[in-house]
Amino acid sequence: MFNLILFGPPGSGKGTQSEMLISKYGFKHLSTGDLLRSEIANKTDLGLKAKSFMDNGQLVPDAVVIGMVDAAINANKQASGFLFDGFPRTKAQAIALDELLESHGTAISLVLALDVPEEELIVRMINRAKTSGRSDDADEAVQKKRISVYKNETLAVAEHYAAFDKVITLNGLGQIDGIFSSLCKEIDARA
Ligand code: B4P
């Protein structure tokens, strides 16, 4: 089983590249952002709880997100590999993910990290706001908050996996197709 984490700051292109990677490699896509937005759209208790955190640029509490991922992994035991997009976002989530995968006799194979400068992230989120309808894209103060949460809480995830020599950092600036090719090259070298 090949399990990939696509890592990077908000707006770095994780969702964009994930769509292309799942159609090429057949990974089971597990995007916590998408799962949370679907809970919000369905007005579930979990969605109502998550919405205020997301609208303020904060992370949804670990216990909520980990429970959601646990259920998604259990519902897809037959998958030949998972692509984790936007998860883990804290060290506690990374440790929980490692334990969940271990209980299924598997592990994270590779972490591909997209490196994009902060000014470009803001430009992309402002552009995405025009079409996404996402309330967390609309406000520049919220975007800056999300970037600071990334630095303070999420970068620790890359450090966690770097200690196991599983992280490759790639330039996330430039043409979408070019970035996709560089991601594929790293996967093909290991899968
Ligand atoms: P996510 O849904 O994960 O979204 P994201 O980080 O904002 O964006 P992504 O990196 O996927 O960027 P995209 O491809 O769209 O998170 C949203 C919120 O959910 C979080 O803030 C948090 O509150 C909550 N959440 C999610 N997971 C959580 C967790 N594990 N724990 C706690 N809370 C959690 O690209 C952005 C834009 O750039 C797009 O418009 C795209 O078209 C454009 N773009 C992409 N690649 C480009 C390129 N190469 N050049 C130019 N533009 C590009």
Q: Could you please describe the fold and organization of this structure?
A:
The protein starts with a strand and ends with a helix. The model has no long low-confidence stretch (mean pLDDT 95). It has one domain: Rossmann fold (3-Layer(aba) Sandwich), CATH 3.40.50.300. A 5-stranded parallel beta sheet has the order 2-3-1-4-5. With 191 residues, the chain is α/β, with parallel strands linked by helices. The longest helix is centred in the C-terminal third of the chain and has 23 residues. Bound molecules: BIS(adenosine)-5'-tetraphosphate. BIS(adenosine)-5'-tetraphosphate binds next to helix 1, helix 2, helix 3, helix 6 and helix 8. The site of BIS(adenosine)-5'-tetraphosphate (B4P) has 28 residues, from helix 1, helix 2, helix 3, helix 6 and helix 8.
